[in-house]
Automatic annotation (TrEMBL), chain A:
The gene is nirD. NCBIfam families: nirD_assim_sml. InterPro entries: NirD, Rieske-like_NirD, Rieske_2Fe-2S, Rieske_2Fe-2S_sf. It comes from the Bacteria. Keywords: 2Fe-2S, Iron, Iron-sulfur, Metal-binding, Nitrate assimilation, Oxidoreductase. Residues 21-116 form the Rieske domain. This is Nitrite reductase small subunit NirD.
UniProtKB/TrEMBL annotation, chain B:
Belongs to the nitrite and sulfite reductase 4Fe-4S domain family. Residues 331-394 form the NADH-rubredoxin oxidoreductase C-terminal domain. Its cofactor is FAD; [4Fe-4S] cluster; [2Fe-2S] cluster; siroheme. Residues 578-638 form the Nitrite/Sulfite reductase ferredoxin-like domain. Keywords: 2Fe-2S, 4Fe-4S, FAD, Flavoprotein, Heme, Iron, Iron-sulfur, Metal-binding, Nitrate assimilation, Oxidoreductase, Thioether bond. It comes from Streptomyces cylindrosporus. Gene3D superfamilies: 3.30.390.30, BFD-like [2Fe-2S]-binding domain (1.10.10.1100), FAD/NAD(P)-binding domain (3.50.50.60), Sulfite Reductase Hemoprotein, domain 1 (3.30.413.10). The keyword Oxidoreductase applies. Catalyzes the reduction of sulfite to sulfide, a step in the biosynthesis of sulfur-containing amino acids and cofactors. Its EC number is 1.8.7.1. The gene is nirB. This is assimilatory sulfite reductase (ferredoxin). It catalyses: hydrogen sulfide + 6 oxidized [2Fe-2S]-[ferredoxin] + 3 H2O = sulfite + 6 reduced [2Fe-2S]-[ferredoxin] + 7 H(+).
Amino acid sequence: MTLAPETTDLKVQLQLADGWFTVCDLSALLPGRGVAALLPDGRQVALFRDRAGELYAIDNRDPFGGAAVLSRGLTGTHRGRPFVASPLLKQRFDLRTGECLDDESVRVATYGVRAR
Amino acid sequence: MTATPEATEATPTIVLVGHGMVGQRFLEALAARGLTATHRVVVLCEEPRPAYDRVALTSYFSGRTPEELSMTDMEFINDHGIELYVGDPAETVDRAARTVTAKSGKVFAYDTLVLATGSYPFVPPVPNKDAEGCFVYRTIEDLLAIEEYAKTKATTGAVVGGGLLGLEAAGALKGLGLTSHIVEFAPRLMPVQVDEGGGAALLRTIEEMGLTVHTGVGTQEIVVDEAGAVTGMKLSDGSELATDLVVFSAGVRPRDQLARDCGLTVGERGGITVDEQCRTVADPHVFAIGECALAADGRVYGLVAPGYEQAETAAATIAQDESAFTGADLSTKLKLLGVDVASFGDAHGATEDCLDVVYSDSRAGLYKKLVIGRDGTLLGGILVGDAEAYGTLKAFTGSVPPVSPESLVLPAGAGESVQLGPTALPDDAIICSCNNVRKGTIRGAVTEHNCTTVPEVKKCTKAGTTCGSCVKVLGQLVTAELEASGVEVDKGLCGCFAQTREELYEIVLALRINTYQDLLDRYGRDGARGGDGCEVCKPAVASIIASLAPTIGASGYVLDGEQAALQDSNDHFLANLQKNGSYSVVPRIPGGEITPEGLITIGEIARDFGLYTKITGGQRIDMFGARVEQLPLIWMRLVDAGFESGHAYGKALRTVKSCVGSTWCRYGVQDSVRMAIDLELRYRGLRSPHKLKSAVSGCARECAEAQSKDFGVIATTNGWNLYVGGNGGATPRHADLLAQDLSDAELIRLIDRFLMFYIRTADRLERTSTWLERIPGGLDHIRDVVVEDSLGICEELESLMAAHVANYADEWATTINNPDKLARFVSFVNAPDTPDPVVGFVPERDQVKPDLPLLSIGMRPAEDLLEGSAQR
């Protein structure tokens, strides 16, 4: 299987400790849905693009269930905060801060992300 | 449980003889007053089972089991230390020694004796009345015997008595597939409750159902064959009626023999004479309650509500509280053979100088009569065919209604008709007569006890918990009270939409809106327009769009364009996510019928991909442990072999389960497998507010468990019975009978309408069972809409379904032929060939299961990963 053919030159890049890591074409991100990316160190990142074109990146692992599935959740906005709802048990995570909207004590890592 | 007569010396003993509905209510009243703590309570029950809902007896034939009819919570009995002796009736009472002797020989000393022996069916003294094939209609055991005889030895049945119970019995015989007759001595049906006009309306409707009614004739003799079995009846007009089975249902008589034998006073026409405290006039230690008692007002009450009041009075008197039973209202509302019949107050116009207001339409089977006093006071009335107004009218009885009486009986739309809401009632109006709950109490439940729903109010006040006829009025009162107290209930779907799901459906359909963004930007809440929506409304709107796709011009493929972004995670991957991030796959196996080749294909695929396999409850095969990137590979092979998506991931039709039916089974009466396949293929892919399950049973033995389904079908010798609103799961609910003896075409048309009406009006994630109980009017309303077409929408419902059926395409077949869509089925966008390392498996019982420690570790060392070496 291969990715969809390129429709744009823009690439999605993640900010890692040693610089920007190119993940995929911007066109691979469907507004409102996520994709997962594998980092060189084995971590997994969930990438999202909202309707306005803004990009978000958080850790892909659901801290409640342990599975790496946050990229497959449904996104939305709650009181101005963009979030993804885990497909496992539906807890919502703020895409900007990684904070769980349903349990303040839980937070997932976030990453800097850009398209260029 | 053993008798311990010695204990009586320390604690006073109450012995209750009879454990029917009234007896059980008496025990509850004792417990509520704390008397079970201070008294030893002994109950002698003649029937082989403790108290059950005799009022709903006939519902046994529409599928309620004896267990479901039970009104006795054994926890209640045990918690209150009540000694209940089932199948052990009282034989004698020694009032001098104050002892009761049971059939088993046990002797119980009493301080207080309460007789609740009920009544027995009156059987007219005609020759051969005890012949084989003659029955009465009183207990569950009677019903079991009738059912057995009807199935093995009878094709025709006759009921003697055209009263309330007689009509129920006749309906039951018809339901058992017998040609049914009703023989009534009076010139009309239900002579006690309705007048001539009401009887005529009732007669017409009942004859249209295929029952034969003989009024104005008596039974003279039961005709038997040489073996002594019934073959017919000789009637008083000289004619003879051929029948294999006779049910006597000609009224009941108080069961007072035990009282007579011990010298208690009984009335001339039977009934144990009691005072206003329900204490027997002959002995202050003995009480009588319910149908065996001749009340202080000189009447024997054959209804459950007065019996309950007597039970409360007796318990209060024993507790030395003041209470009196001075008489009761005989109002009744019933549904007999599907016909509403109600009578209330002075139904026959016995009051001097009273006047009638009558509306009669025998073509429609409608008859409504109000009895009005000279001063305009509503005195009573009779309603046949439509008893919607019963709750309101009854509550106004005794007062002058605020609108003209004729406007209360005219049908809606006929000029002057007025819908008088229960809010106009005074606070002391009785809303629930079974439990004697007044409007003020119901309002108090909302204002003082913070109840906000009908179930809460029912629990708090007991209103609506017996016959249920007031539940509709209850709902109106609760809503009105909530609104009056300023409780603004935001009925909106979510933070993005102020509309309910039903309202959004109407908007989408009426305006042909076929994208979520368009709907959100035009009809969302102010702050939500132009935004991203949320996880609640996106799948809900996606479901509405999918249900209506062909009609509103949207794509019927749920992953097309914008729709892909709206779907719940499972719908987006067309598979069911499991706890470790792997998926399960369920191909459709219509009706549960599968060829050996099909089984082999599934077996080979599961083996080749190392999947865990399990048979589902819906007669399919579930394959677990597929990684997201394996899903297209698995489906290419399944589609090749002719399988389609089973929609196990969707809020859509799941399965139509079936038993093997008449093709193989010795008992089957219809081809249930064929019908199940037809239904499953017709409704496959139909998106709905929640999942839909169905089943078809080939005979009344119900091996497919159709009554636990959203729509269940049970074969009869004449066709199909359709049940709706059933559910398994956490809150099981037996489905309700919607229609009987349908042809194939009638069945499918009715299901089309039912499903589309459900899709149109249900809330998000609301199963048919909760929907049916929530919507005003409940099952009756649904029947009105989908059977009688009261809203005139059936044609539209049918055409919406026809469009769905015509436009169905298997979404997995579409997906594997679409490279863009297939690109989504990878674990990593930047490493499409690398599997998710968190998804691992370990062996269990010769198959695999998720490697859970892998989840808690979360990830493995980086070096292994990019090599893709984390294979199972």
